[in-house]
Structure formats: structure tokens, C-alpha cells
Task: structure prediction
Amino acid sequence: GSVMDVVDFVHAYRKALNNRMDEITRVLSTGGAKDIEAYRSMCGEVQGISQALYEFDALLKKANYDDASST
Result:
């Protein structure tokens, strides 16, 4: 694969995770959690995605991937 393939992957992965976080945040901010268990589950998912993005960016930075902070 070419370098462009990696760039496309990084952007697509980050976009997908950020879109999911935005979706959950929208549901939470409009009172969309049906009960406390659903609320906790959604909060946990947001925390997990946030951690995954942090680790992903840290690995990219360690690999000297210049685009790590541009999205």
C-alpha cells in the first residue's frame, strides 16, 4: 500500500470514531438515555472512544506520523 492509503485510513478511522462520539453526545444532551444503565453505557463508550483516539494519536506521534493532530 502507498502512503496515501495510510493517510486515508487515519482520516477515516478518526472520522468514524469522532462521528460516533458526536452521535452519543447528541443523544445524551437531549435526554435520550432511557435509564441510568443506558446513560452509564453511553458515557463509558464515549470514554473508551476518547481513550482509543488518544492512544492512536500517541502511536502515530511515536511513529513520526506528521498528520496526527490535523483532524
Observations:
- The mean pLDDT is 89.
- The chain has two helices and no strands.
